[in-house]
């Protein structure tokens, strides 16, 4: 079985809870879908834990932004969080994460961070006007992605492509603070799973680790409330 871990965002407690559950389910390999360290309370520790896994890795926009801050939005929250992440990781880590591939093709489907066209444009539970454009050139029967932190599965009506978002391990945005991930079973069935952990402690750790910097209030609230619009 294959575990799908997306958008961990440096939240080690959430990751450990998910990995414990995955072991109990018999998961023996993983796809890591990007955004591993940025915004979280334990960026280096999370990276070290992920490196111990038997896994295929994908670059997310978080890895790209951390390596090249000028690529990221210029607002203070994002730029200050990037600066904190860059201080927590060494140069080799930043470079190796930025050099990861943008997609991985496995027998169970095509795996990207946002979409095959972009690491910051993605799919939603309800189809958007640009969905066909984002699927242009995809010939896989299943496309797995993250970025929006919203777990769902549906089939694109026009192309018949199964769209799967495992949700976010470290920072869900569907008002459910439990860590989210998914399992691809040996019969190709996808199972979404939610795992409780002490999300309030993770929120507090963001504030404490970075000395209450202004950006941490927003990130901590997102972890606590599992919403982007806080």
Question: Could you outline the blueprint of secondary structure elements for this entry?
Answer:
Layout: E1 2-5, H1 12-25, E2 29-32, H2 43-51, E3 55-57, H3 61-67, H4 76-88, H5 91-98, E4 103-106, E5 109-112, H6 131-134, E6 142-144, E7 152-155, E8 162-165, E9 179-184, E10 190-195, H7 199-209, H8 214-225
The oligomeric state of the chains shown is single chain
Query: How many strand units?
Result: 10
Number of helices: 8
Strand content: 15-25%
Give the H and E element order.
Answer: EHEHEHHHEEHEEEEEHH
- Rounded to the nearest angstrom, the distance between the terminal CA atoms is 36 Å
Largest sheet: 5 strands, mixed
Shape: globular
Please estimate the helix content. Answer: 25-40%
**Which structural class matches the secondary elements?**
alpha/beta
Task: Please describe what this structure looks like.
The protein is of the alpha/beta class. Helix content is 34%, strand content 18%. It has a 5-stranded mixed β-sheet with strand order 3-2-1-9-10. A 5-stranded mixed β-sheet has the order 4-5-6-8-7, with no helix packed on it.
Write a concise synopsis of the structure shown.
The protein is 34% helix and 18% strand. The termini are far apart. The protein has eight helices and ten strands.
